[in-house]
Every structure is written in structure tokens, then in C-alpha cells.
Amino acid sequence: MELTKEYLLYQYEELGILEGNANVKIVRNSITGKIAVKKTMSMEQLPVYAFLQSQKSPFIPEIYDYFENGQQLIVIEEYVEGRNLEDILSEQSITAENACSIIGELCQALAPLHRATPPIVCRDLKPENIMLTLEGHVKFIDFDIARVVTPGKTRDTMVMGTEGFAAPEQYGHRQTDGRSDIYALGVLLNYIILHKLPVEEMISGNLRKIVQKCTALNPDERYQTVEQLETALKKYYLPGKKLHSGAAKTWKKFLPPGFRSGSIWKMAAALLGYFFLIDLSLSLDIEENDIILTGIQTFPQRAAFFISQLVEIAFIFNYLGCRENTPILSSPIPTTRALGYIALELILMTVVIAFWLLCETLHGVG
């Protein structure tokens, strides 16, 4: 590695592993203080990331720099604040209109890559790799198995992709191209609306035809470009419409944590948790002047404790987006997040104790 490049890489201080992947780490530039993501991958990805750095897009993390280190490629890219699509879908449904909007923005993200010379195909379009930012935009964040299309080649060298979302040709039947990504976009559209793959259950209505065309086994029978797919989708959504990363616009977003996903086991666990919290609140001993209070006299203090714990739960489970809008709790640095939750609990307990003292003072005056 060149000395200049080595010095630039040295500026990025590693803060921790991201999403449990040892090859993806949160870093901070010691000069600017900017938080970024450091990825380590095969040198085969060099042409992909060189193109991404030269063609900036609002739908793709900015590539700050990349370094060749022997047989490895090290990429420093923008840290995207928001939530991935899989996490959002695990909590609530997304309307068909918003689903079409997401796919439409992904079409815009992919268009420059598919038009490149030679074209670049992503091969790993799935909910975990799609972020909805705090500003309400879509970003595709993982190009680690993207490849450059080789003219005249009959099939990919390596079989790669995610089962269910990968096109048939990704399993060695022929070379992948932009139409392979279009297949994945059709699966995604179906998955966002139903939370099911098309092979499990196909969406109904007019969008069914779009999903069927995207996921045709023969690439020649699919939409041939993402522009064609986007045009077909535009009658179902308003282009440029912002999406919120924390919730779909439905009544379900107001349900308490544990009940938004509709999952039976999550609702059962949440119900047990809330019952435990109620029991804990009712069993608290409330004293005034060394006398244990009983009955209605204890209601305000116990209610204050119960509400404080509900607030804590709301932040932990990002109720109505409260966690992601609190910088210290949505920090990419685990230590910072942990300190944030400790501070939150201390603040809540301080408020509860102050309220208890106020109640004691009022009772004394009475």
C-alpha cells in the first residue's frame, strides 16, 4: 500500500463491529470526527467500488475512499442513519403505494450501474440491504457480491445470492445481468406488501402482473431495463414521495411495542411483560414518615413508576420513531448507545423520585 494511502487509512479509528459482521466495522476519522463504515472484501470488487465512487447517487452510500491491501480491498463509505427494511417489516405493514415507491427509488439507484460500460449487476437485493433513512429516502447499502458483466461469458464464476431473492441464473444456469436485479425487485415488491415470497403467496390485483413479469424464469420475458419497471410502477405511487423509516402510515404504528408486527409469539411475550410490569408497580412499598401507605394513597407514585418504565420500553423498541430521533440512542457506537440508555433510566428514576417527594410534601401539608 502506498504511504499516502496508508496514512489516510490510519486516520480511521475502529469503534466496533457492525451487525455482527467482522468484515464491516464502524470507524471515526480522527481528523474530521466523521463516522463512517469500513468494509474489507475481495479485490474482485475493485471495479464496482471505483465506479460507485465516481458516480455519486442519493440512493447509494457515498464512497469516501478505497485502499488496495494485498489481496484485500478496504472501502470507507458513508454511515447511513435509519433502519433496514427487514426490521421495519418485522414490526408493521407497508402500504402497496409505499412499496411501489421503494421499488421505484431502487430502480433509480440501479439504472446508472446497469448502463455502465461494462454493466454492473448487484445480485443481492434483499430487505436487510435496503435502508430507509431518517430523511425518508431509500438507500441500497451492500454491493459486496456485485459483479461486472463480462461480454460473451455463459455463466457466473461463483454461485452467489440470497435464496428466494436471487434469480435462477444466479445458480449457474447463465450469466447474470441487469435482468437478474429486476427479478429480485419483483420478489421484493411482493415481499414488502405481503411479507411473503412470490412462491409462497403472490400479491393480487394489478401489481400481480408486474411481479409475475419481473420474476419470469426466462430473463427475456422480464422487463428488460429498470426504467421499464419504474414506468410500469409510476401509476401506483407518487414519484419523490418521502417515506418514514420508523413506520408505515397505518393505525398499527400506534399499537404498543410487541403488538405492531402481528406475530403471535411476540404479542404473547409482550403481554406477559406488561403484566409483570403492572404487578411490579402494584407491589412497590410506598412509605411516608416511616409509615407504609396502602390503597388509593399509593396510586400516584405507582402510576409514575409504571409510566417511567413504559417510556423506557418505548425508546428501546423505537415506538413512533422516538429512538431513531434521539442521537445518543441511535448512535452507531455500542458504548455510546449503552451510556444513553443508562442516562435515560437515571433521568426517569430522578423524575419518579422527585414526584414521590412532591406527593409526600403535599400529603404532609394536607
Could you explain the architecture of this structure?
The protein is built from 10 helices and 12 strands. With 366 residues, it is of the alpha+beta class. The strands form 4 sheets. A 5-stranded antiparallel β-sheet has the order 1-2-3-5-4. Strands 6-8-9 form a 3-stranded antiparallel β-sheet. Strand 1 and strand 2 (21-29) form a beta hairpin. Helix 4 (96-115) packs antiparallel against helix 5 (178-194), helix 4 runs antiparallel to helix 7 and helix 8 (264-282) packs antiparallel against helix 9.
Run of helices and strands: HEEEHEEEHHEEEEHHHHEEHH
Global mean pLDDT: 85
The rounded Rg comes to 25 Å
State the share of residues found in helices, binned by percent. 25-40%
Overall structural class, as computed from helix and strand content, comes to alpha+beta
Low-pLDDT segments: none
Shape from CA axes? Answer: globular
By DSSP, the count of extended strands is 12
Q: What fraction of residues sit in β-strands?
A: 15-25%
Q: How many H/I helices?
A: 10
The termini sit apart by 78 Å
In spatial order, strands of the major sheet run 1-2-3-5-4
Largest sheet: 5 strands, antiparallel
How would you summarize what this structure contains?
The chain is of the alpha+beta class and 366 residues long. The chain has helices at residues 3-10, 46-54, 85-89, 96-115, 178-194, 206-214, 226-233, 264-282, 299-316, 334-365, and strands at 12-18, 21-29, 35-42, 63-69, 72-78, 82-84, 120-121, 130-133, 138-140, 147-148, 287-288, 291-292.
